Amino acid sequence: MAEISGNSRERRTPKASKEPNQQVRDDLIMGTNNSSIVSKRSVERLYFPDEAHFFRYFVKKPLRRSPLINRGYWLRMKAIDHVVRQFLDQQNEKRKVVINLGCGYDPLPWQCLSRYPASSENVMFIDVDYKDLMIRKRETVERTPELQSLFTNIRYPESGDILLSSDQYLQIGCDLRDLTHLDNVLKSTLDLSSSQVLLVAEVSITYMEAEHADNLIKWASGLPSARFCLLEQLLPDGIDHPFAQTMMAHFDKLKTPLKAVQKYPSTSAQSLRFESLGWTGTSVQNLWELWASPEFLSSADRKALDAIEPFDEWEEFALFGCHYILLVADNLVPSSNLLGICGKLRTGDPPATTTLSSSIVVAYSDNPQGHGCRRFAAGLPLKGSKRAQTRVGNFAGMGLKSRIDSYDVYDRADDQGAGLQYEPDRSSIHPSSRMCHTITDLGDAGALLVGGRTSPDNGLVDCWLYHKWVDTWERVDDAPHPLYRHQAVDLGCGYALISTGRINSRTMSHEYLVWSRHFGWVQCQLGSDQNPPDTYGATFSVSTEIPPDLSKPGCGILAGGMCEDGLLQPDIWEWELQDFATQHPILHFRISSDFARDMGSRLGLVRFGASVVNHQQRTYIVGGIAENNILKASDEICAFGFSSVPRMVTRFSNPFDNTVPRPLLIGTTAMSTGGSLLTMGGSAVCFSFGTFSNKGCYTIHPDKEHNDVAKKGLDPGIPPEVWSYMYTSAPQALSTTMNGIAAAGQVAPKLTLVPRIKIHDSNHFHKILQAGVPVIIEGSNIGPCTTDWTADYLKEKVGSEREVVVHQGTTTHLNFKTKNFTYTTKTFGDFIDSVEAGEKLYLRSLSSDNAKEIPANLDRDFSSLAADFQLPNELEYVTKSIHSSPFRISGPVIMWLHYDVMANILCQIRGQKRLVLFPPTDVMHLGFEPGSSSSSINVFEQLQDPSLCGTHPHEVILREGDILFLPSLWLHTAEPTSGMSVAVNVFFRDLQAGYAAGKDVYGNRDLQAYEKGRLDINKIIKSLDGLPGTARSFYLQRLVAEFQQKSFSP
Asked: Which residues does the annotated region (Disordered) include (predicted)?
């Protein structure tokens, strides 16, 4: 169904009958059809690999959308499919009719006929949309046999509004505002009195004026037997919610504003709308609530999605789901369970809570434009200008475009002039860029950073202590496994407790860990019969009311968090950790009975992704997402204390009034600054509508502190302190040793021998490929060539008079850059004799058909030798992916240091050869100029030179019959060690995509992304040409530093 980043549009009559402004608007809405179907095509390709694909016929150029958009569209498509299938499976003597209102290019009829052929028998599917668009859809059907094959008796009327008819399917071009005309067209083709009708409107009638949409809904309620399925946007917390702002601004910018959502912003308003327009029963849920419904999706269904693509955008997915509604109404059945989902409220709105309510004062400070915009970072305690005061940092996280390893520095507004130093992090080592990590302030012991991730499948194990007084990072014990989306609390005395989290996109950790400098990592034993399920992103806090004491247990609260099946863990648990200062800590859990059992406690504590911070004897929970519904402004910040009985959660009414911009409390960092709470950063991708980032920081003064100010006779409306952004501290760029420049005291690199192995099947070789490191394969059968290919045999089989082009060197070391060799044509017999005589000659065979256009191929170029050589069956992958197979014969020459972009195997047939290999990461140390795949360095002469101290050389000795697997981009050079060397080199494609377009005769043309990147660099440099010399140099150095920083990030 066509939509702007979603679905369809307001209907359109013939152009001549419309006012110009209306025509322009209808054209804008109609033109958005492609955006929706491209997203749905992305979902179809990934999520439905075993089904017939129908979006493919309407999408010329498929694109892979982001995981968030894919999962959001999958949920929308699943919701519509759920309602339609439920309708099709109903037992009814009447003929069923499914009318898709504003269908766009949506292939709902084909999907139903393909997925549910039995249930779709004798069902009429009707698509209704703009006539111009439906004509194009009809043309696609006409030229696509696969789309016609599911229909019988297809007809294409030459006139009228019925554009295609068949026994199963109708296409109607009609304006939905003209209900009389629509009614007449339907009645001319169907007996509605004997039909059961389902009308589907997926993000379509919301673009109509609300009056016209209401008329359509009312008309549909007058059909003899009808059901209406509506999926469109909501404003669950009003237009000022940041997601709602971004969504509405997106559609306004496209000049296609959402109309219905402004009049019917909530689930209850939509339900009352349908009841008032003649519908007997309604069921309604937002999509986030629907996601959690077991009758809609099982745990297995949700877990299966994680196998399709890595996903960790839960907060953004929940925001999307809370802003979309699925409503089903029926004009005969007075049921509130038309969705087939039990145990849910009719309106889907959250019930009232009975928690305590209080007030807070919030001060806001703008960040400089483009600064402070990071999410899923972690708070870092910093030294201040005075030793008694501290500053605050917000370390790493996701920046505007990528993960970053810097930190933003915040200070009190009245203290920013003292000791301000704009300087980089002075640590010689420091944590790399990451997100979803934790930093726990352990007091004088330092601040402990644990884990984090780059991508959802690349969790990190490294852990660090930051010592603020000396501004130094210290790497400490790695975690037992990668860990992110965990939580950590300070137990006192240098001990920290770390909760469960994620290891990768499909694996969660199962243990709670204690870290200390004394014991390192220690796993907690669980001492209870009943324990919470493994979760990540939970509300995890430690009591502040018990002074740190090694002899006393630590205690706290665990609530919420995401379970393995993508649902929030619903319970509130209390934990107690005994003997945490030993190597055998015992962790006990129990379901909390002290918290009041009302929705307020659940809403306050059962969250995912909230910032949890202890502040002045209370625990504050800031932001995140909750079950089923959006967190409204009055629920986003709450607090509780362990001393209150019964334990109640305090909510803060209207914390963000009209005096400060409302923040998006997703991915924010909250820290206690002593007298106040500080929230920094925070942003979210608002589905396909754009990204919302908080533009400043918020200083929060809870009511207790504020009342203290009032008691002192100060104006309670003025917070005692305001924090603001100061600057960003970035680590110094890493330096590299290039072109043999070494520092004093450096020693020669250590030589590593490449391992020798035997392989037994193709699966073993696949594992070698995946490992991506060189190996020598021995004991494999490569044919009789190893015994037959003597000099005389080669001359006989190839022909002594055949001419070949060879390299003739002036020195032993051939240098491709200086061209200290010539290309010489010799007869093959003369070449073999000269090599045996010790001349500096080297043959790398070329295609005998067209050397400039076609890669070398042993079977074709030396067909008389081909029967003697074979690749073993274990290398089946190489055979199927072969690019070229050059024949190599070498005298006493050293092949220049170079790399090949394609992976290859080198089969040594006669003689022995020594090679030195370097991993791709050494490229900056070995004299490779930009754009060149060759170096002038003679590695065999310089291998013991300290100038190569930063490299990691690997040595290979190839004997007859050996096969060297050489991964892509490994740098290598070679020399024979025993007379004439004869080999066959087989290049093969080990990447699915990315190779440069056009010819690549030698298999060493750089990947397309690099070639394009070099062109982009030239454009960048050229763009700076008009600047004065100082400015040009200044900005070029900044760009170089940025490239270096990002290249050294994981």
From this structure: 1-30
